[in-house]
Amino acid sequence: AQSVAQPEDQVNVAEGNPLTVKCTYSVSGNPYLFWYVQYPNRGLQFLLKYITGDNLVKGSYGFEAEFNKSQTSFHLKKPSALVSDSALYFCAVRDNWGGGATNKLIFGTGTLLAVQP
Amino acid sequence: KAGVTQTPRYLIKTRGQQVTLSCSPISGHRSVSWYQQTPGQGLQFLFEYFSETQRNKGNFPGRFSGRQFSNSRSEMNVSTLELGDSALYLCASSAGDRRNTEAFFGQGTRLTVV
């Protein structure tokens, strides 16, 4: 079955420092991977996606993610964290199980990013 | 371009009642998916509709149902509400083609069952 794992419930980082939020995946076939961010009492906001091509994907708000096929990882990164980046981050993979067309997403458990001033 | 609109934002219902939630996707998007978010279970897929047809369904009881109209607007219905149905219900809209694969989410409907 398709799945994603976010091994850290929380990541703490000081403002101005680089941040990394980890994600590993398990899929059959080529993965379609996504990162979303959720602020309190809000829906999910799309940050970036990987479908194919360059392993380094750039997204919104200065975020980027590195796709690593050998390690089955898709870690989210940002060179310099802001206090306003504090939020809940979700990694997701599109469920291509069975080969049928679908936009169904399977989400990780989420990682709370806390950026200290 | 207007985003995904979900109504209402908040709902309080009593056990045993039923509820209908509404979602208007981004103009031109034909795929609408619904998710339930709870602290204990995280984000769980309910179902997906594409061009008025249910294309995929998650592992939820039959009390949870949905539909999509010809203008792509979607509704989900929960009958015989239980306390455990209290959650944030999120609707996601996708173009549904190979290139534009990302889903855009609405603000959600916070359902509280008392």
Helix-strand pattern of chain B, N to C?
Answer: EEEEEEEEEEE
Please report the distance between the alpha carbons of the first and last residues of chain A. Answer: 41 Å
Largest sheet geometry of chain B: 7 strands, mixed
Fraction of residues in H or I helices of chain A: under 10%
In terms of quaternary structure, the protein is heterodimer
Largest sheet of chain A: 6 strands, mixed
| Percent range for β-strand residues of chain B | over 45%
In helices, the fraction of residues of chain B equals under 10%
Mean pLDDT of chain B: 94
What this model shows, in words?
Chain A has 117 residues and is mostly beta strands. Chain A has strands at 3-5, 10-14, 19-21, 24-26, 33-38, 44-50, 56-58, 64-68, 73-78, 87-94, 105-107, 111-116. Helix content of chain A is 0%, strand content 50%. In chain A, the strands form three sheets. In chain A, strands 2, 5, 6, 10, 11 and 12 form a six-stranded mixed beta sheet that branches. Chain A is globular. The N and C termini of chain A lie far apart (41 Å). With 114 residues, chain B is mostly beta strands. In chain B, the strands form two sheets. In chain B, strands 2, 4, 5, 6, 9, 10 and 11 form a seven-stranded mixed beta sheet that branches. Chain B has a four-stranded antiparallel beta sheet with strand order 1-3-8-7, with no helix packed on it. Chain B starts with a strand and ends with a strand. Chain B has strands spanning 5-7, 10-13, 19-24, 31-38, 42-50, 53-57, 64-68, 74-78, 87-94, 104-105, 109-113. Chains A and B meet through strand 6 and strand 11 of A and strand 4, strand 5, strand 9 and strand 10 of B.
